[in-house]
Hints:
Blueprint: E1 6-7, E2 27-39, E3 56-62, E4 69-76, E5 82-86, E6 89-93, E7 101-107, E8 115-123, E9 135-145, H1 149-153, E10 156-164, E11 169-170, E12 173-179, E13 188-189, E14 195-198, E15 201-204, E16 208-213, E17 216-223, E18 231-237, E19 242-249, E20 258-265, H2 268-271, H3 278-288, E21 292-295, H4 305-310, E22 320-321, E23 323-327, E24 330-335, H5 351-358, E25 364-367, E26 385-386, E27 391-392, E28 402-407, H6 417-427, E29 433-437, E30 452-456, H7 468-476, E31 480-484, E32 487-492, E33 501-503, E34 507-515, E35 524-529, E36 532-538, E37 547-556, E38 562-571, E39 594-599, E40 602-605, H8 615-623, H9 630-636, H10 642-654, H11 661-668, H12 672-691
Parallel strand pairs: 10-19, 20-21, 21-22, 25-28, 28-29, 33-40
Antiparallel strand pairs: 1-18, 2-9, 3-8, 4-7, 4-9, 5-6, 5-8, 10-11, 10-16, 12-15, 12-17, 13-16, 14-15, 17-18, 20-30, 23-24, 24-25, 26-27, 30-31, 31-39, 32-34, 34-37, 35-36, 35-38, 38-39, 38-40
Helix pairs in contact: 8-10, 10-12
Amino acid sequence: MKKKSRISGIRAGLPVLFLFCCGSLNAQVLDDKIHHLRAGDEREWDRFSSNPEVQYLLKFSAVKNTREMTLMLRQEDVKLSWIVYLNGFELGKLDQDESRRTRYLPVPADSLKNGENTILISYKKPAGKADNLPDDIYIGAITLFNSPINELLGEAKIEVSVTEKGIEKPVPARITITNTGNSFQPVATLPGLQLAVRAGCIYTGNGAASFTLPAGKYKVYATRGFEYGVDSLELDIEKGQFVRHQFRIAREVPTWGWISSDTHVHTFTHSRHGDATVAERLLTIAGEGIELPVFTDHNVLADVKPLVREMQLDTFFTPVLGNEYTTPVGHFNVFPVTKNSALPDHRVNDWKSVARNLGNSTPIVILNHARDFHNNFQPFGPKRYLSVAGIDLDGWQLPVNAMEVFNSGSQQKDVMQLYRDWFGVLNHGSFITPVGSSDSHDVMRYLVGQGRTYIRDTAFSSARNIDVNHAAEQFLAGRVSVSFGLLTEITVDEKYGPGEIVPVSGKVNVLVRVLGPSWTGADKISLYANGQKIREARIDPKNSKIIKWEGTWEIPVKMQDTYLVAIAEGPDPGRPFWMIPNPYSRTSSAWNPRVIGSTGAVWLDCDKDGKRTSAFGYARQLTEIPDLKIPKLLKQLENFDQSVIIQVAAILNEQNKLSGTEFSGALKHASQKVQKAIQEFLTSREVSVQARK
Length: 693
């Protein structure tokens, strides 16, 4: 009797190593161990041991094969080009993907010989390219099958459908397939189906998918991005078996009045790197629940609306035409634009030229991944940017009205670094919108919509016909929330949210909520005022409820305008359907992935003038008085917070008044708060001085 499939919940934890359980009787296990290899002398990530092998060599006995066979192995954390050789001939390459996955390679007829055979796996430097070392990988669990890949993958057939609980209608979804070691399992699909397929991953635009795979044990998940829960199925199937199953997933995170947007979306078709074709990208967008995707291929305009309608996906999202204006001095996402717009000249050498070439025709201009190096240029690196004060050391003016504070395809070792940069920009007087995005060029390596921006729009009712211009206005007003596994909400005095100015007197009450699907957790919520943490609470990371934390803080009102931002963090959920990728730009071997959810800025009008006044605005007022006396100025600074003191220090630095006996003598008699803030500026300045040498 054939074994039946069975439904079960998600089991916590992923084993580090595994042995593949296959149902085929024609399998020869050549090596059941996992091996650690390294290209380069340096350890890539701290989680790897210090005793790797340079290459993998396996000797085994076999007989000459008269027909094609299949070599199966497991690989993990592969970034560079690793080649698999059989008896000295190149059999194929490992997938350049850092996820844990099973890899199948065809063994052509007559590749094996009677007696001793060898398998060699080694790193191969690409011709004409610089090494991107180091690269630590795991490989092993090597098995030889006496059948070609198409026969092996066709041993059992699975048909699934995904419906949404409550409405009981099919929905676009992601199907994730893992084998007994929680390794992504390759599958085969029938031609003509509207699917985006990679190893262990199928995106379906209509909630239905049919695929085949080898006999064995598997776990299959159905999900639809951040807002939804997960349904799962455990399979123990034999050769020739057919399984049909319906998944039911529920919308768990309440996002009424919010539009889910990914402002940084690519395709291989137009950007020529990554692997997602335009059609595949549309399926991934629908499958991850993004309602307002912005298509931003590099220096090209690609109108996808006709294909969206043709694929009948227009019910699920409204595509926006944009452009990643890719220059030697930074990358900038600009949108919305019309398909007949002229492309701006990207051959520029400064931000003044960027602003001039973009003109006033594009409402939104976002500074992308400001801490990444491209063309040996790092927009917010210490060589040219003083983060603590939000000052460009080359005197360039930011040609943007928004910036990415989180990019899931290009993460920072320090999750707060880009937030500190944003705080510095706000304190210096540029009221720009924080952005979360995915920067995805791929079907599954970097998930589209994993980092996303929620735009507040209470008039929003249908993903099919979003008012793009109104959404853009809300975005520019800062009425947003940035999400990467968590969603944080902030309400001041029961009425005001991100992007709004709060008329205040006395104290204000700040309500904060942290939300997320049942499969993520949070462990900390922090409240920042003008970039400084003023409140913090710990959260139970094992709380699987949708509301992870809710609380109210009473905040005293000071004499200066203050912006509030709430940021929640949590541990890596470690889910195969939502894997967190390694940083695109590696800066050290330390890497501790976190989920995050942050609000836009809410402004408290403490000086009661009806507008937002930045820390720089106050600093300028304090330093522009005639016959400025340093001791008196330092005394006045005691009435302001650290952000104003740092801006004053920056102004005095420009005037060459931070050195000399007058200032140092006066500083000795200043309060500890003033001394600490000025020392922070001086320390940051020294880092930049050293970087510019």
